[in-house]
């Protein structure tokens, strides 16, 4: 696992306390995080706007990606592929556990081929599977 300073420097971001705190949360998380979860985890150490700006810079640099949810909120997860500034290549399935509400990136699960009609061009595929995760299924 890369260390926090290395990730920030590779993405041409200065190492700040805020970025370090938020990136540490992502590295320790077993699943995706919402803005509210990050805010709660930082225990009022960081304000809502600072968290939002940090998440936006991480998105722009390809450090994290977004995951759609049923309630139109956003979850964020670390990019594990070859994402870079302005270009996300993190095509994988997301799994949402209905018991613990954790969102997982299933990096090693193949995305099915989608045959689009002539004239259509796919630019992004989002697949969300809902069910019970291995931890809740025990």
From TrEMBL:
Q: Where does the chain cross the membrane?
A: none
Q: Which Gene3D superfamilies match?
A: Winged helix-like DNA-binding domain superfamily/Winged helix DNA-binding domain (1.10.10.10)
Q: What is the annotated signal peptide range for this record? A: none
Q: Which UniProt keywords apply?
A: Metal-binding, Zinc
Q: Which GO terms describe its molecular function?
A: DNA-binding transcription factor activity; transcription cis-regulatory region binding; zinc ion binding
Q: Which InterPro entries does this one have?
A: FUR, WH-like_DNA-bd_sf, WH_DNA-bd_sf
Which Pfam families does UniProt cross-reference here?
A: FUR
Please share the entry's free-text remark on the cofactor. Answer: Binds 1 zinc ion per subunit.
What is the native source organism of this protein? Answer: Rhizosphaericola mali
What are its cofactors?
Answer: Zn(2+)
Q: Where do the annotations place Zn(2+) binding?
A: 97, 100, 133, 136
Q: Which PANTHER family match?
A: HYDROGEN PEROXIDE SENSITIVE REPRESSOR, ZINC UPTAKE REGULATION PROTEIN
Q: Per the UniProt entry, what is one GO biological process?
A: regulation of secondary metabolite biosynthetic process
What's the protein name? Transcriptional repressor
């Amino acid at each position: 696992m890369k260390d926090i300073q290395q990730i920030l420097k590779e993405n041409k971001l200065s190492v700040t306390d805020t970025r370090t705190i938020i990136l540490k949360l992502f590295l320790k998380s077993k699943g995706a995080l919402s803005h509210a979860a990050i805010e709660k985890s930082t225990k009022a150490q960081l304000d809502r706007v600072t968290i939002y700006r940090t998440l936006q810079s991480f998105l722009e640099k390809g450090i994290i990606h977004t995951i759609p949810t049923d309630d139109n909120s956003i979850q964020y997860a670390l990019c594990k592929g070859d994402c870079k500034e302005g270009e996300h290549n993190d095509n994988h399935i997301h799994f949402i556990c209905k018991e613990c509400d954790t969102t997982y990136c299933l990096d090693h699960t193949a995305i099915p081929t989608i045959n689009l009609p002539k004239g259509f061009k796919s630019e992004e595929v989002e697949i969300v599977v809902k069910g019970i995760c291995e931890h809740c299924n025990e």
